[in-house]
């Protein structure tokens, strides 16, 4: 197995149209994620899926045991691929993710999934702080519009701001096409 891992974050049903918390571009991001998953599997990279459930049944989405909290079929895990359950934004907290990466002697992680401004941001920064090299595939991530102090920030701007911040000091931020080109050389 290579020294790389693909971390698939929260590509879950509630983030898709008809779900409890739909994201802008969830389907397109998941289509890209599916291509990245296939490439990582072909390289025999460690593939780790992370699935979020809130601990309370009155959560706005990802309620425990719900269909919305299940991994979306476009990013479904295969037999033997670990699925970690998390209850916090940062996928390293309380999940065993770091131990899994360290046991696999992983030195570099590639991150895809949702939401760009929360869980993707948190896991990428934490991974960099732990000393892993980090790549984020920007078009395999999705988010939604945010509101702050009476101002609505469109999803595309939220996504761009967070990708720009990660690219500044925490991760290499590239497209699916660039990733696929680099792993098939």
Automatic annotation (TrEMBL):
This is Cysteine hydrolase. Keywords: Hydrolase. Residues 5-178 form the Isochorismatase-like domain. It comes from Pseudomonas rubra. The keyword Lipid biosynthesis does not apply. InterPro entries: Isochorismatase-like_dom, Isochorismatase-like_hydrls, Isochorismatase-like_sf. Pfam families: Isochorismatase (PF00857). One of its GO terms (molecular function) is hydrolase activity. PANTHER family: ISOCHORISMATASE HYDROLASE, PEROXYUREIDOACRYLATE/UREIDOACRYLATE AMIDOHYDROLASE-RELATED. The keyword Cytoplasm does not apply.
